[in-house]
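User: Can you help me understand a structure? I only have the sequence.
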Amino acid sequence: MSVPTPLHPDGPLSLALAVVDSSTAPLVLLDGDLNVIAASASFFAAFQIKPAGAVGESFLSLGEGEWNLPRLRSLLTATLSGGAAVDAYEMDLKSERLGGARNLLLNAHLLAYGDGSQIRLLLGMSDVTDAKASEKLKDDLLREKAILLQEIQHRVANSLQIIASVILQSARKTQSDETRTSLTDAHSRVMSVAALQQQLAASRLGEVALKAYFEQLCVSVGASMIRDHDQLSLYVDCDDSAVDADISVSLGLIVTELVINSLKHAYPGGRRGRITVSYQAHGPNWTLSVADDGVGMPKDAESNTPGLGTSIIEALANQLNARVKVAGGHPGTTVSIVHTRINAVEAAAATGNQAV
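Assistant: Let's start by predicting it. Here is the structure, written out as tokens:
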């Protein structure tokens, strides 16, 4: 039976020297006194240090002494004694020769072989100056973008408020009931968009929480169309659903049109009542409905002629791959926009688009 030959202490050292010498990343092998045993060509090139005379010299005295930092000396000494570990230690190396401060990440590993008396320290480093600069530039750009977006949102909000105010003033001044009604409807639609803009500005995930959105929407519509809030009220019954901004735009416009329609037609002669906006979702299926407890649908064919609001609602429902359902509420009327996976697939097949 053969007995394995003990590994000579020079064997591991030769291997370490070969690894250091062939490394493409800056590596330095140090002894227990922090003197240089070997260093990779990439180290000498990266930090513009002449290889001649470096071996045997103190690592801290290399170059123009830029490595001689009290904190670095303490960390390397503690690592040699086994009392610390240097893993991704970040430091600034200041050298006019290198064009100013360089940001480095250091890693130091204690090596021991033979009888344990041969202590070596393998020091690796990477220059992350450019990466840090790129990261800072990206952060600065993102910060500037956020400030610019905030400014744009502020200006859009002010513009919408000004437009809505001008429309409402015009509605109050006009002598024509038909014109006043049209202007009031336009004001409510502008306020609908303003409410959406505020929700989008508050959203960080690119989604709009429907409950808060519909509540703000009803406040805006009610402020312009309800004179006595003790007589007529708007109520929101919504789950915790949040949808993409483009979908919320369509839903918000539908709610605006349906609420306006109920306020205009469901409570003639000063009737009291409440309009309820509800939204419930179950997986891909959802239902948006606006229900009033007013006089119900008119019986005569002339009053049932679809208007602009009805056309808007149908167009928006089609865009959402949903269908419009109208039902008597006994009393009142309930208009529902119903989206189901089956209807969405059928609509997508008919148009050649992907179902939502």
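Now, to help you interpret it: The chain has two domains: 10-127, 133-351. The CA atoms of residues 65 and 222 lie 75 Å apart. Let me know which part you'd like to focus on.
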